[in-house]
User: Which sequence fits this backbone?
């Protein structure tokens, strides 16, 4: 369990970096009117889905997920808030990627830009940063 937790915590930075890179690439490609696709969009999608799989395993195994103690801040966050916000973000990333594959030209990049940016904002809010006093560290 500890290995999965460390992997999940460390992979968050890879996901954030890939999403930022995908957003900047999408903005650049959209503004320049580039055609084609960028592999960074796919890498960001793969990283978020990998993070989801690890997170689902942790959700089932974690002592912080407890529906009986839902009135307490930490348990409510990990039992409901964290997983639902992350699921919404991953759905947005997936929809953005699928929709962009069906488009051509600058519209493809604009779609990725909008969907990935919305997802990044949700992810940043849903991460249990140490300053939120949820019992999580930087790694």
Assistant:
């Amino acid at each position: 369990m500890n290995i999965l937790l460390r992997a999940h915590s460390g992979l968050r930075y890879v996901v954030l970096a890939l999403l930022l890179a995908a957003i900047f690439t999408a903005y650049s490609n959209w503004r320049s009117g580039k055609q084609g696709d960028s592999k960074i969009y796919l890498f960001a999608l793969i990283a978020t889905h990998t993070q989801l799989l690890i997170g689902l395993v942790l959700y089932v195994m974690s002592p912080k997920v407890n529906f009986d103690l839902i009135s307490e801040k930490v348990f409510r966050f990990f039992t409901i808030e964290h997983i639902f916000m992350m699921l919404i973000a991953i759905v947005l990333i997936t929809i953005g990627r699928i929709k962009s594959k069906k488009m051509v030209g600058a519209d493809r990049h604009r779609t990725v830009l909008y969907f990935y940016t919305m997802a990044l904002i949700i992810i940043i809010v849903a991460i249990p940063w140490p300053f939120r006093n949820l019992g999580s560290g930087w790694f």
